[in-house]
Amino acid sequence: MSSPEVDFALFFLFPSSPFLSPILALFIVVLSVLWFHPGGLAWALSRVGRSIPGPPGIVLALSGTAAHRALAWLARSFQALPLMAFSVGFTRFVVSSHPNTAREILNSSAFADRPIKESAYELLFHRAMGFAPFGEYWRNLRRISTTYLFSPRRISASGKHRRAIGEQMVDEVKGLMGRYGEVEVKRVLHFGSLNNVMMSVFGKRFEFGKGEGEELEGLVREGYELLGVFNWSDHIPVLGWLDLQGVRKRCRRLVGRVNVFVGKVIEEHRQKRRNFGGSLEDGVGDFVDVLLDLEEEKLSDVDMVAVLWEMIFRGTDTVAILLEWIMARMVLHPDIQSKAQSEIDAVVGNSRLVSDFDIPMLPYLQSIVKESLRMHPPGPLLSWARLAIHDVNVGNHFVPAGTTAMVNMWAITHDESIWPEPGEFKPERFMAEGVSILGSDLRLAPFGSGRRVCPGKAMALATVHLWLARLLQCFKWVPSEGGVDLSECLRMSLEMKNPLVCKALPRC
Length: 508
Ligand code: HEM
Known about the structure:
Transmembrane segments: 20-45
Keywords: Heme, Iron, Membrane, Metal-binding, Monooxygenase, Oxidoreductase, Transmembrane, Transmembrane helix
Bound molecules: protoporphyrin IX containing FE
Largest sheet: 4 strands, mixed
CATH class: Mainly Alpha
Helix content: 40-55%
Number of strands: 11
Structural class: alpha+beta
Distance between the termini: 91 Å
Radius of gyration: 26 Å
Oligomer: single chain
Strand content: 5-15%
């Protein structure tokens, strides 16, 4: 460039006059227009004509531990309960805080995909059911697990393991009370829950705090943490290769360890089958056996590890977290606890242990579980979002392909126009009105809805009902010195910020 041209260019960028250079000024104007567009930066860059209401700029709430509350507040402030647009970096989001639009999103085939985070990809979860793209591979996994892992027959057959693990938990509570005079409930529940899923999936139980059991707990904990981390690289592509938060590095290290651990379990099954001479009789094996028996849709070893690992991972914490919230409520509301115990005593008595068959006769206990799911949904934003596969309308808003869609189930279950006195814990509300929580009634759909509804919901509910009944039958739960702190912390799931520590006084 000749020198007058350079001077000209420099004048535009860095003028010697006190006024802004035209290019800099233009840049600032364009950025402000983009920034203050309803829904923020990512929406401004999209080709949407009529805008969806929402906050300008970039929303940081998703990186915090109360995203469900912040989004609920924003949706109210922008009068955008049916649908609110917002941006996180360059990612376009919509969030529904109303049952009607929630139904539209969750039940529409346009939202049958999930956005895949870097951590999920690195942990190979795109080969497991939860993050697999909507298509043939996902459909096969869904069919296989619905038929073999989550069928009513399977769930009923695994009742004896649930009972045995429930007994172990009761013994553990007694032991802890004897030693310390109080119980950190989540530790007992986590141990039980992990073993329960291990039995269904791997067909084996581990001793926790020791050897393989300890290693497995560590793997699950690390995976949970990694999937829960808000990773800026997911939303600002340029940060991708820097891996500033170290997520990629940790994921790769974890995947190596998971491959060895789960690979060993698969090999043990292969060996058992060789000794047994071919495939196992129907109904004898666990989920590893089922996957090894597949003929047409045979999975590679890598895919099998991903599928098995996801089940363990998904099935463990959700159940333990929900039960911890329920027990916290039982400690806080002695009147409700004793009403549930009277119901159990009337139906079961105290000469035998409560079993799966008693649960249908315990409507008050079931209402306690529903009310806890309403007040403390483990996935308040339904955990895993959906992705618009193609352009679609939600309500009267146009949502372009590639938009991430969320449902704020917490906002819906705390909306006083839907649930009177939403801040009060009142199981009685479900005695008066039978509300299905399995996905057909979007006023309370803690397991999601539609094609990608949680496939483990029946197994989760069978476990939660039985263990809750058992823990209430055996103990009266009272607060310890520290009381009960209901503060929340949203990671992968909505957890209690301070673990529940209380006393369990024997009843039987
Ligand atoms: C209290 C317990 C549980 C809760 C609250 C829960 C909640 C959820 C939610 C909200 C979703 C997303 C649904 C949607 O997008 O519409 C989901 C998906 C899923 N859940 Fe659960 N879940 C629980 C227990 C379990 C268990 C025990 C398992 C398995 C052992 C499991 C396996 C899965 C899988 C594989 C998916 C992904 C399904 C797909 O994308 O096709 N969950 N769960």
